[in-house]
Specification:
Elements lengths: L21 E4 L4 H12 L4 E4 L5 H8 L4 E4 L3 H12 L7 E4 L5 H10 L4 E6 L12 E6 L5 H13 L3 E4 L2 H26 L11 H14 L3 H10 L3 H16 L3 H8 L6 H8 L21
């Protein structure tokens, strides 16, 4: 697929905290398509490009680009980043939306002498109307305040809420939030698979968990498996989870219940307020959760 044609909406002129021409690389993927559409609706100067990412196609799409946003899977990330940087003008910002930050930042910094910024939209391509849409933003090599602000400005124009963190902080958090969720569901259903004698005893709570995990463990299993392996903190997160299982095996269920209640007894809301984020209602769980960002 060649470069996407410009939308009919007249682009808004760039200003403080707003990027100039933004190019979505991988604009036919689920996240790329969503970001391109919403950027056009917001009146931003935006273009899209997707396969085949030939030098000619990239040169045309990236002409005059202020920001190149990589929205491609981890399996082809380095290859695409190399092709993009070969056509990107000096001084342009190179950014990504992958669900892991340490490795992609190193790959981009190795290839690009200009400003590098990592981002991770913490929602899927079909967020619920009115849902909070946070985006983690990580300043990479060569990225000054103005560069980071322009990347944040792109997501702000789309109605998102950005916050800054380090790549290591991001990856440690995603190892626990995203990867542990995937691997524990995977292990749970693998443990019970094939045990036909269990079928008469299935409860509504089991069916709800099975429905919630269905898409993650079927359609998106390869994606989440890749994210698990790409995150250097995944195995440590599994070891920490195993410690909780050991507590349960030792019979200290009340201890675990007391600790888990933090999520519902106001502990999480109080932590958000202390961080300046403010308490907010989380998006309701979907039966088939979308993966956050690209692999």
């Amino acid at each position: 697929m060649s470069a996407e044609p410009e939308g009919e909406a007249r682009p808004a002129p760039p200003g403080p905290g707003v990027p100039g021409k933004t190019v979505i690389v991988g604009s036919r993927g689920r996240m790329g398509e969503m970001l391109l559409r919403r950027a056009r609706e917001a009146g931003l100067d935006v273009a899209g490009v997707d396969q085949p990412l030939t030098p000619a196609e990239l040169k045309t799409a990236l002409d005059g680009a202020d920001l190149a946003l990589l929205c491609v899977p981890a399996a082809v990330f380095a290859e695409v980043a190399e092709a993009v940087t070969a056509q990107l003008a000096p001084g342009a910002i190179l950014a990504d939306i992958t669900s892991v930050k340490e490795r992609p930042l190193r790959q981009m910094e190795r290839l690009w002498a200009g400003p590098v910024v990592g981002t991770h939209p913490l929602f899927g391509p079909k967020p619920a109307p009115g849902a909070d849409q946070p985006v983690a933003v990580v300043a990479g090599k060569g990225a000054e305040e103005a560069h980071v602000a322009r990347v944040e400005g792109f997501f702000t124009a789309l109605g998102c809420r950005s916050f800054r963190c380090s790549a290591a902080t991001h990856d440690r958090a995603m190892a626990r939030i995203q990867n542990t969720n995937f691997i524990t569901n995977l292990a749970y259903f693998a443990l019970l698979a094939g045990e036909e004698e269990l079928l008469p005893f299935l409860t509504p709570s089991f069916e709800r968990r099975k429905a919630a995990a269905a898409k993650m463990l079927t359609e998106d299993a390869e994606l989440f498996g890749g994210l698990f392996e790409a995150n250097a903190h995944s195995h440590e997160a599994v070891r920490q989870y195993r410690k909780m299982l050991n507590v349960a095996a030792g019979g200290d269920i009340d201890l675990l219940c007391h600790r888990a209640a933090w999520w519902w007894n106001g502990g999480a809301d109080a932590a958000r307020e202390r961080a300046g984020e403010g308490a907010r209602e989380p998006e309701k769980a979907r039966e088939a959760p979308e993966p956050d960002g690209e692999a």
